[in-house]
Structure formats: C-alpha cells, structure tokens
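Repro:
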Amino acid sequence: MDELEYVSVSLTNTTRMTLTTNVWVGDIHVYDANSFITLGSYQMDVNAEEHHLDSDLSGEGSTNRVDLYSQIVWHSPPDGGTVISLR
C-alpha cells in the first residue's frame, strides 16, 4: 500500500511534482497555475471522483497542469450505499 493512498495532495506556490513510480493518492489538487505534475510513463491512481485539478468541480478540467492527464485514473466510490474496506 502507498503511504499517500488516503492523503489529499495539494500543489501550490509553483510546485513541481515528478513521479518516479506508479502511485496511489487519496485526492489531488493543483491550485496554483504555475504548479505542474509530470507523470512521465507512470500512472497516478486517485481515490476520489474525477474533478478539475484546480477545484472540486466535477469532470475533467485543468488538464494543462499535468503532462499526461489520461494517466490519472480516478476511482470514485459507488453511488449511494456504504463502502467498507477491510485490511
């Protein structure tokens, strides 16, 4: 399990983040227009419903803040009901 699997990661103040392996995060936000994520050949799995990277608006948006937006895989919880996670 990745240490960031349930952590919300926020990039601000001209932050540059470059992946060196595949990673799971709880959520991702890139609030600053000068911040950027470089995925390269790696995949970022996000335990959240797809939203704009610079806000919580639903759907694809702000894709210019990452080099390969298609390599972000969003894992939204099922609609309604209860999610139980056992480890």
